[in-house]
């Protein structure tokens, strides 16, 4: 490049290009004896097509990363040996035949073909001869593309790359290879195992400090987090000091850490010996007896025990002991903070979004979806809400798969939560496009439908003597919290305020609403695993159940859904679950919506997930946004007001005295914002087709960048008195069905990219089919 000032630009580029081509040809022929394109290089006429990005193997987006005791290093996978691998961590592929994903460039409307090359990786940037080349495959697949070469070997580092073909306006093809992605296989392999996982440590410094007296120095890390303290101290003599950790201050800013916090809000005081001189102290956390029981998920040995804390105080002789640096190692799974970025004109809505998004990251400290710090046990309901909010904030799918695989063999006691296994599997398939996971667990999912509890009414019940030993064995149930079998839960805790005084009877409307949704989910999963007969059977079974549901639970006088047979009581829960899952007849929808809106938040933070979903699916976004941004005592804002920086187990301390301050089942607003306010949901597995159906009512302006398995989707809107502007950007190899609301306008004109378009009118929405990848602008006038 230093020669360029002495040459004309035209001659310099021509010379460099010729030399580069000759070098590439020599390397391609002499070293690997493979075609030029197979080396990830390009010849003349291939300069303009962008390469595939976002490579994943078995859905891992960074399998090349190496950690040491949970801390990210710059080491290569090739440096991992039998001698050091026990001190290093990496995400290993456990399948002999993994699957590959990549992001097709946005300029490519539809991928026409692809070619994958896989080789063993070697030191010094060398590559071995290819293990496998797919050849040119005429196919648009870019998600979960199967490896069909020779079975991979254990404990081996491989690398792969991909190129694609597209058709331009002249009908010609173009192609270029991506860069290599490295991955390592585990020491033992199966045909379709899940990858291993890594929990990482993120080093953090406090954002503020305050000396409350000469012997008490308080540090604030800004947010609560599962972490371990790290101190660098200078002491004039051998001494000792107390480290105080806590989630809550006594009376807010300027007060000490609360040493008697309520419920399961955490506090810990640790005394450490301090040596004369300057030393760094990794402060050990003693395990809690309750959350380390046999049923709890344990911390990885390379991480050690953690405690949730926001505040750290040094208490002792601060005259002879001088803190040089106070920090903490914040523990969580790898999380992409910018995978989803949302902002709106409503500052409270933005605060609640950040609260929920951070909760997903911070509660991932074991690598599994848990109920919170009090028990550290996976529960199906926690996993379902956690999954939806995780998928709404980061395109990471393997944590769901791990948790579901665990729950199948470690079920909990609520009836509805057994049925939620099917919903978790369904959403995972739709968002990740991974049919192999479905095939792996399909047989174990079938008993979780609880069809064995169905009787001549067409409904299921846990209270009619059908929970036999064989049935409980089929769902892998063992005694849980003293419960010998499944019991209906509806909501939790079981107080009149949280259940809206739900009346429990033998046949429960909420249980059977979940049964209906589970049957529908199972029909989709059967189709995914090429079981058309089973898919049709589940579809018919769902239709029959809907008829039975309405026959037994629908009140013909009011149109509302009753709690169960033998009662006339209609609760929020019976109606919101039925509405969310599509069980309310069209003619009764207005009455049910009116009733639901009249009940407000007469449910727990768990129940709020389905209340918001019911409102979102039936265009009641203004009411949903009012609930999300409410500042009443039963609100997400109240969690912030009481001092938490993660969603709580309940609306506040008064509603569940033993609650903890780190419960991700309270994150419903995160997935509501993505799925309903901004309206982004997969129509086909793996976002091959997406629906964009915003529900903007209650918000004047909002924008989001949302990462999917196929790339980023951007949606923004701005509502003005005389017009509404929308902008949408879709990744390559994706099409969208766009539904835009036009409430308040009669005979509106819709313009797409400056051109008037005729959409299909559907229930107050204009629907435009087959919107291609790229950026599009829509305006109503």
TrEMBL record:
Gene3D superfamilies hit by this protein: 1.50.10.10, Immunoglobulins, Maltose phosphorylase, domain 3
Domain annotation Alpha-L-rhamnosidase six-hairpin glycosidase: ranges: 338-675
MF term (GO), any: alpha-L-rhamnosidase activity
The EC number(s) this enzyme carries: 3.2.1.40
A single GO BP: carbohydrate metabolic process
Protein's UniProt keywords contain Hydrolase: yes
Catalysis performed (reactions): Hydrolysis of terminal non-reducing alpha-L-rhamnose residues in alpha-L-rhamnosides
Domain Alpha-L-rhamnosidase C-terminal span(s) in chain numbering: 679-743
PANTHER family xrefs: ALPHA-RHAMNOSIDASE (EUROFUNG), ALPHA-RHAMNOSIDASE (EUROFUNG)-RELATED
Protein name: alpha-L-rhamnosidase
Species of provenance: Arachidicoccus rhizosphaerae
The organism's taxonomic lineage, starting at the top: Bacteria, Pseudomonadati, Bacteroidota, Chitinophagia, Chitinophagales
């Amino acid at each position: 490049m230093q020669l360029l000032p002495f040459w004309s630009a035209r001659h310099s580029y021509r010379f460099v290009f010729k030399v580069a081509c000759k070098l590439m040809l020599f390397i391609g022929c002499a070293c690997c004896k493979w075609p030029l394109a197979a080396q990830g290089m390009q010849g003349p006429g291939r300069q303009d097509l962008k390469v595939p990005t976002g490579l994943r193997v078995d859905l891992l987006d960074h399998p090349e990363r190496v950690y040491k005791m949970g801390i990210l290093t710059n080491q290569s996978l090739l440096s991992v040996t039998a001698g050091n691998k026990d001190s290093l961590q990496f995400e290993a592929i456990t399948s002999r035949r993994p699957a590959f994903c990549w992001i097709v460039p946005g300029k490519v409307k539809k991928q026409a073909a692809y070619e994958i090359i896989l080789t063993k990786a070697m030191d010094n940037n060398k590559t071995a001869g290819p293990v496998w080349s797919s050849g040119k495959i005429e196919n648009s697949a870019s998600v979960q593309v199967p490896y069909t070469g020779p079975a991979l070997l254990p404990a081996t580092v491989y690398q792969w790359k991909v190129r694609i073909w597209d058709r331009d306006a002249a009908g010609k093809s173009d192609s270029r290879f991506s860069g290599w992605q490295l991955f390592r296989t585990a020491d033992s392999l199966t045909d379709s195992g899940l990858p291993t996982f890594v929990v990482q440590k993120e080093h953090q410094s406090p954002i503020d400090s305050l000396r409350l007296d000469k012997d008490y120095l308080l540090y604030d890390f800004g947010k609560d987090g599962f972490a371990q303290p790290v101190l660098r101290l200078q002491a004039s003599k051998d001494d000792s000091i107390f480290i105080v950790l806590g989630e809550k201050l006594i009376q807010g800013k300027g007060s000490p850490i609360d040493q008697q916090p309520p419920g399961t809000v955490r506090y810990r005081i640790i005394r450490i010996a301090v040596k004369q001189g300057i030393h760094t102290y990794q402060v050990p956390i003693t395990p809690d007896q309750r959350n380390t029981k046999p049923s709890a998920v344990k911390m990885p040995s390379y991480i050690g025990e953690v405690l949730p804390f926001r505040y750290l105080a040094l208490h002792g002789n601060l005259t002879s002991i001088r803190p040089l640096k106070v920090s903490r190692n914040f523990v969580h799974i790898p999380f992409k903070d910018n995978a989803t970025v949302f902002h709106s004109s409503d500052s409270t809505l933005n605060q609640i979004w950040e609260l929920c998004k951070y909760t997903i990251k911070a509660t991932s400290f074991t690598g599994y979806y848990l109920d919170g710090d009090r028990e550290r046990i996976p529960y199906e309901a926690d996993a379902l809400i956690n999954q939806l909010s995780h998928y709404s904030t980061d395109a990471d799918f393997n944590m769901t798969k791990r948790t579901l695989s665990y729950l199948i063999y470690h079920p909990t006691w609520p009836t509805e939560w057994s049925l939620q296994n099917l919903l978790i599997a369904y959403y995972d398939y739709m968002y990740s496009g991974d049919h192999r996971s479905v095939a792996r667990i399909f047989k174990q999912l079938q008993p979780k439908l609880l069809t064995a509890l169905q009787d001549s009414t067409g409904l299921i019940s846990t209270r009619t003597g059908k929970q036999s030993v064989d049935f409980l064995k089929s769902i892998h149930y063992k005694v849980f919290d003293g419960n010998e079998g499944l019991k209906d839960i509806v909501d939790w805790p079981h107080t009149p305020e949280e259940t809206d005084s739900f009346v429990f009877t033998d046949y429960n409307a909420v249980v059977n609403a979940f049964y209906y949704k589970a049957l529908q989910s199972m029909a989709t999963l059967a189709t995914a695993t090429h079981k058309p007969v089973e898919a049709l059977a589940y579809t018919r079974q769902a239709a029959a159940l809907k008829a039975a549901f309405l026959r037994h639970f629908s009140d013909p006088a009011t149109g509302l859904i009753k709690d169960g047979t033998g009662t006339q009581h209609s609760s929020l829960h019976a109606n919101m679950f039925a509405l969310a899952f599509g069980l309310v007849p069209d003619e009764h929808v207005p009455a049910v919506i009116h009733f639901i809106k009249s009940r407000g938040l007469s449910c727990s933070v768990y129940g709020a997930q389905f209340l918001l979903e019911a409102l979102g699916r039936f265009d009641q976004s203004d009411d949903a946004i009012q609930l999300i941004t409410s500042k009443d005592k039963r609100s997400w804002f109240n969690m912030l007001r009481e001092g938490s920086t993660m969603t709580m187990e309940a609306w506040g301390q008064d509603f569940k005295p033993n609650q903890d301050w780190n419960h991700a089942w309270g994150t419903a607003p995160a997935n509501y914002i993505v799925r309903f306010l901004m309206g982004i949901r997969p129509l086909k597995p793996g976002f091959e087709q997406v629906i964009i159906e915003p529900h903007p009512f209650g918000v004047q302006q909002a924008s989001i960048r949302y990462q999917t398995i196929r790339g980023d989707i951007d949606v923004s809107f701005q509502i003005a008195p005389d017009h509404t502007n929308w902008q949408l950007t879709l990744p390559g190899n994706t099409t969208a069905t766009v539904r835009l609301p036009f409430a308040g306008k009669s005979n509106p004109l819709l313009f797409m990219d400056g051109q008037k378009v005729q959409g299909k009118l559907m229930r107050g929405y204009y629907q435009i089919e087959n919107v291609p990848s790229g950026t599009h602008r829509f305006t109503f006038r």
